[in-house]
What we know:
Blueprint: H1 11-30, H2 34-42, H3 46-70, H4 75-95, H5 106-122, H6 124-128, H7 132-140, H8 142-152
Helix pairs in contact: 1-3, 3-4, 3-5, 4-5
Amino acid sequence: MSEGFRTPSRRPALLWTLWILYVGAWSAALLRPEPAYAAAALLPSDEVRHYILKTVHVLAYLLLTVLTGALQMPRPWRWLLLLFLSAHGMGTEFLQQFVPSRNGSWRDVGLDHLGICLGVLLAWKWWFGPSAVVSANASTGSEAASATEESSRPVAGPPA
Length: 160
């Protein structure tokens, strides 16, 4: 197969699709009354339900933050998405006051942000390492590899 006709990697599109679906599903779960009814029916006591649901808050935002760090984009845009996650945590808690059987909680906002912080720590190399776009372009583009090889070759001087 010719070098000029490489098929692009599907990984970035898959990650973006997964990210969008995750944000949509998590938003729906936070802004619908059914998950609260299901938790009340399935979990035996208020205390157990409280700890499980609060752990789910932390883990959901942790996973979403790790997924955000894995997206291939310039670092400033990734940090902008991190601000989106923060606003999402606050916004969904605000909107829950208008959902039957739900109520917003500053404690949940704090737990959401704990999950965000843990996600950044867990995916440290994606958040603070080389930009994903630069490394992806360098590793997949044959032109970039050949340009690097040519620039590292010594220039031939006049014969001595």
